[in-house]
């Protein structure tokens, strides 16, 4: 038999349950809409559904967070790897540590801010001025004015001069011995893209270098006709084949490298007279005439004497000067 209750429609938001149902909750009676055959009608609970949705949202946010964090870590790792690689490349080339940190041996100049890199633009005087100032400083002692007017102290030495010199006298060596192009007036060739580098040989007290025999084939192949029994020979070359190629081979403005004095360091200047405040060590300028532009060119110079490092000066940092030239 149909009653009015049979026509009651229930919205989705309510739940139809028996009082004996396990899900019956007495505290909900206050919110029920009535009783029908021992059943109560009360609103459906929404808290569990909301809780599930909240958990799902939290999990999604955590997943997104870890994804973003992973990408950030990956990018940082990539940046660090690139930075380390760049540092090593720079260190090996454009930021070479100076080889002048030694007590004696072969030294090079200009050396600005403790760096072995000589980098400049021939069209910009401000870019090479620090190198000119440094060369002026290190060639000051070779000024001819003082030496020529003090003949009682400075004497002209040649290949046959015997050592030791008379007490209180030292060999004369002036900027005139360093050639016509490697001086302040000619801006040491930097404005022409033909830079000069000053090499100075400083030895311990009582050490007299012994030149290689002119018949030594190994050294002769390096020095050629510049090998002399009266000089410590000097040679400069690229550290690698690519560097050597960048030094150039053309003779359009002279040889790729020009040495002055041509044969190197005269042995008459040794042994060193450190007890004489007027003693000045011998020097050689090397002018690079055809060095390539826009390249880091690593150069190694060696002072050759038979009693340097047991006849192998090319393997000792004492008798080597390393530097990098970058023009452009």
UniProtKB/TrEMBL annotation:
<feature type="transmembrane region" description="Helical">
    <location>
        <begin position="64"/>
        <end position="87"/>
    </location>
</feature>
<protein>
    <submittedName>
        <fullName>Uncharacterized protein</fullName>
    </submittedName>
</protein>
<dbReference type="InterPro" id="IPR038702">
    <property type="entry name" value="Na/K_ATPase_sub_beta_sf"/>
</dbReference>
<keyword id="KW-0735">Signal-anchor</keyword>
<keyword id="KW-1133">Transmembrane helix</keyword>
<dbReference type="Pfam" id="PF00287">
    <property type="entry name" value="Na_K-ATPase"/>
</dbReference>
<keyword id="KW-0812">Transmembrane</keyword>
<dbReference type="InterPro" id="IPR000402">
    <property type="entry name" value="Na/K_ATPase_sub_beta"/>
</dbReference>
<comment type="similarity">
    <text>Belongs to the X(+)/potassium ATPases subunit beta family.</text>
</comment>
<dbReference type="GO" id="GO:0016020">
    <property type="term" value="C:membrane"/>
</dbReference>
<keyword id="KW-0472">Membrane</keyword>
């Amino acid at each position: 038999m149909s009653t009015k209750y049979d026509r009651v429609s229930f919205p989705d938001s309510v739940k139809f349950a028996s009082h004996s149902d396990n899900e019956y909750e007495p505290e909900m009676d206050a919110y029920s809409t009535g009783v029908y055959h021992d059943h109560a009608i009360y609103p459906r609970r929404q808290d569990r559904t909301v809780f599930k949705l909240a958990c799902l949202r939290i999990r999604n946010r955590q997943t997104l967070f870890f994804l973003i964090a992973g990408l950030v870590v990956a990018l940082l790792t990539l940046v660090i790897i690139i930075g380390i690689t760049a540092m090593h490349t720079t260190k090996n080339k454009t930021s070479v540590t100076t080889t002048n940190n030694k007590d004696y041996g072969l030294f090079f100049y200009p050396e600005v801010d403790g760096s072995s890199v000589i980098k400049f633009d021939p069209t910009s005087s401000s870019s090479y001025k620090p190198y000119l100032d440094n060369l002026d400083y290190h060639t000051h002692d070779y000024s001819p004015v003082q030496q020529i007017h003090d003949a009682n102290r400075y004497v002209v030495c040649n290949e046959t001069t015997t050592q030791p010199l008379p007490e209180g006298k030292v060999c004369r060596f002036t900027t005139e011995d360093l050639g016509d192009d490697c001086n302040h007036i000619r801006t040491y060739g930097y404005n022409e893209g033909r830079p000069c580098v000053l090499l100075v040989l400083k030895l311990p007290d009582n050490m007299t270098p012994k030149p290689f025999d002119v018949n030594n084939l190994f050294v002769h192949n390096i020095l050629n006709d510049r090998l002399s029994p009266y000089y410590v020979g000097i040679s400069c070359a690229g550290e690698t084949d690519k560097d050597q190629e960048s030094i150039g081979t053309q003779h359009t403005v002279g040889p790729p490298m020009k040495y002055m004095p041509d044969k190197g360091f005269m042995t008459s200047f040794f042994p060193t007279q450190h007890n004489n405040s007027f003693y000045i060590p011998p020097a050689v300028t090397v002018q690079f005439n055809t060095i390539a532009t826009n390249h880091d060119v690593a150069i190694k110079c060696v002072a050759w004497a038979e009693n340097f490092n047991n006849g192998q000066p090319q393997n000792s940092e004492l008798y080597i000067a390393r530097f990098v030239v970058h023009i452009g």
